[in-house]
Amino acid sequence: MQTGFPRRLGATLERLVPQFPALVLTGPRQSGKTFLLRALFGHSHAYVPLDDPVLRRFAYDDPQAFLADHPPPVIFDEIQAAPQLLPWIKAAIDRDRDARGRFLLTGSQSFPLMAGVSESLAGRAAIVTLLPLSVCENPASRVPVVAARNEVASWMLAGAWPELHRFPDLDTRAWSGSYLQTYLERDVRTLANVGNLRDFERLLGLLAAHSGGILNLASLARDVGVAPNTVKAWLSVLEASFQVLVCPAWYENYGRRLIKSPKVYLAEPGLIARLTLTTTTDQILHGPLAGTLFESLVASELAKLQTNQADPPRLYHWRDVKGHEVDFVVEVGGRVHAIEAKLTSSPTSAMGEGVRRFLELLPDARRGRGLLVCTSPEEGRFSGVRVLPVWKLSAAPSLEALLA
User: Which structural domain, as residue segments, surrounds residue 270?
Assistant: First the structure.
């Protein structure tokens, strides 16, 4: 049984671990990977923290002896700190391919870690991502159970990092500032050759202020003072470390001229608030970034619905040259669904116009559901578009169930 507050991904992990020789749990720093694996499997698996310098050195100097001293079933925490273990784990798996659930690995840096996993553990490991808390995972220690507009604002202001809700007396601004500094100093320096961390931090601030905007590399590069290729490389770092969600444009040739550039979201609304100096719930609900913050929250919740089922986030957007748009497009079961995010408690039929326009372009066999996510106290429907409070979006068991 899990201790502390439960995570929706827990059921997926309990299902997958007995099916694969190894499982890799990845995700951003402080999303709760170690806590979750130890809560679920600490009674059956030894725990080995590879960020311990003594253990890391041992693993580097003699990986074969290290594995002999730490035999499975075992949890290797922060496997990216000792990637030289991966070939030896592969060899151990291949000696007994019928054994399942032997190696549980965590890692925070997607690109280098996944390169090693793909090379060494292809076909041997399930790959699962844990993102920060979803709205429905709120333990109600710092923020009340989210079921109204003001509580949505409090949730976005606090942020979704589990530690902030496990220890509600923590200063959120101090904690998030420390998180940013640790992220810049550790992940950024590891993943990319960033010569000036201030420039990188300036890019983070710009992405926060324009979260959900169309990606314009030239404009970002000009504002930061670096080359467009540098911004492109840094965005890859941000995506690799799960700090941004990139939503490509969805387009099929249905006779419309479309915007084909992606949209980019900072993945954690609490971090957006920190970077944009948003400090009150009134600013969240009524400030100039109110719509940006809410749309980013919805993007994050949709991504978590996917990752909690061990699926990678696949979100798209749609916009034509006349300005008609849909915030999120998802494809489930061969059908294409349209989702709009509006920070309102009084939705109107006009707010679903973009969703309706988009769905009308699709052939019948491809046409899916239309959804308007907002802060309305109740569900509803306008001209074929379902109205859904954001906390009910979060509570859906899966994206498939939500759009069935």
Answer: 135-246+255-289
Same domain as 267, residue 206: yes
Q: Which two tokens mark 251?
A: 């387009």
Task: Compute how many other C-beta atoms are within 10 angstroms of the C-beta atom of residue 53.
Answer: 9
Nearest one of 403, 375, 402, 401 to 389, comparing CA atoms: 375
**Closest Cα to residue 316, out of 334, 339, 294?**
339
What's the rounded Cα separation, in Å, for the pair 303 and 374?
A: 17
Indicate the angle between helix axes 85-94 and 110-120, nearest 10 degrees: 30
Return averaged pLDDT per consecutive 10 residues of the chain, 404 residues in all: 73 97 93 95 96 94 95 94 92 93 87 69 91 95 95 95 93 88 74 75 92 94 93 88 92 68 93 92 94 96 96 92 90 94 95 93 93 95 94 93 92
Could you give the CA distance from residue 370 to residue 387 in angstroms, rounded to a whole number? 9
The total domain count for the chain is 2
Reported pTM:
0.93
The position carrying tokens 């890799």 is 24
